[in-house]
Fold this sequence. Notes:
554 residues, six-stranded mixed sheet, five-stranded antiparallel sheet, 29% helix, globular, binds iron/sulfur cluster, metal-binding, iron, EC 1.8.7.1
Amino acid sequence: MAATSQDPAAATPRRKAGRHRGEGQWAVGHFTPLNGNEQFKKDDDGLNVRTRIETIYSKRGFDSIDPNDLRGRMRWWGLYTQRRPGIDGGKTAVLAPEELDDEYFMLRVRVDGGRLTTRQLRVVGEISQEFARGTADITDRQNIQYHWIRIEDVPEIWNRLEAVGLSTTEACGDTPRVILGSPVAGIAEDEIVDGSWAVDEIQRRVIGNPAFSNLPRKFKSAISGSPLLDVAHEINDVSFVGVRHPELGPGFDLWVGGGLSTNPKIGRRLGAWVPLEEVPEVFEGVISIFRDHGYRRLRNRARLKFLLADWGTEKFRRVLEEDYLGRRLTDGPAPEQPVARWRDHIGVHRQRDGRYYVGFAPRVGRVDGATLTKIAELAEAHGSGRLRTTVEQKMIVLDVEEDQVAPLSAGLEALGLATTPSPFRRGTMACTGIEFCKLAIVETKARGAALIDELERRIPEFDEPITINLNGCPNACARIQVADIGLKGQLVTGPDGQQVEGFQVHLGGALGLEAGFGRKVRGLKVTADELPDYVERVLKRFQEEREDGERFAS
Length: 554
Ligand code: SF4
């Protein structure tokens, strides 16, 4: 299957053009680009923009950037133009892209498996302070995102990141994005299987490989051998979830076709058990199906979930086995329902080697370069130098001896990083929002942080796991559809009849084996000012009316 994206015909098992020709599927012989994105990807591989950034754009400045690179291929290296300050959400849909573009970039650093060393974190912190006005957000896909990046500084930033083994390669774009991994892989007492080797091997084989750099759209993946189901496997294009096969032992249950945003879908099991050493091969098979058969005509139908919906799991598995693996997969069991109430690893937990890991909670993933540097110092002083990011915008310090847990926790608390956070701080996430995102309609990060503070003050006795996710637009970057309380940013009518920032409310979404999407509460929209009152009312009513053991989503 090795081929370059410049030569799709060589990459795909060519068949006669058939009735799916109109979907732009390479596998049925349809290679003519059917939209602007497909055209610029055909014109030049997104990976090739790096050379132009290094040799031309960083030297001649923002105005020298080709528009197809600026709003297209630069994503292949983690770069998005950020929103010009001062443009309100009402203008998001009406302004042309060039009117929304600032001359600064968001830059996403991929952290595959969420694994960081203190050496890496120090470099991340230094770059933040030197080149990104101190910004650095932990994302809900374990990445780190900078803002205010100048194109002139990008080559130097890459040099520094790559010197410590980090990269921005394919952090955005129609590519294999960061591979989510259990934040406690290799250390958890209850781990079924450690997927770290597979994360590394997939990175080595797939990331930056031109055979996989022109996909119909983004391709999200997750690997976790934790019984806590701690990587949101339900909403990735492909996931490998730790299970014990009754005869063959530990391995992974294969899920495909999850994804939020337009037409959200929970991933589906193919009923196949995959041993650790076969995960990279099966990953390559699934991503190749997506490349070859994925729909390329309409961007909002291009994710793998749409192909799976048309094919069904039986056909998907058959094509994977017959056309891509050349062998049958082994049937296997489903994962079991986790017993833990939270799956985020916050707090102090014993590792299997007798040491401890300590998970802590910044507010809505917002940290900064100076804080990251101090976290690195603490992790070095009290741990072994290993850290992890989580899919809840949180972090973990690993390998802490028992007598170092208290001083580490105190040091983190002094930085405002709670190791015993309230359920609100623990369970609230927010996307980037209008501060930097060109698609945003409302502000999210500051609002999410303020909501946490208000709820802590108003309902200090609340002790149930709860997830409150805020999005700045109808997209799904903060997973609103699977939150207990999902808040989708939009303009709403305020008390005096004016359009103001607010949210459409979705209630009762969940991840886990009972995963499902929250109900859009008909007509229920709250202004941003009303938000704390509204959430307080909902939570208090739940407290008063819940039955024994009832969860918010039930
Ligand atoms: Fe931007 Fe919308 Fe994603 Fe938030 S959800 S980061 S506003 S695209």
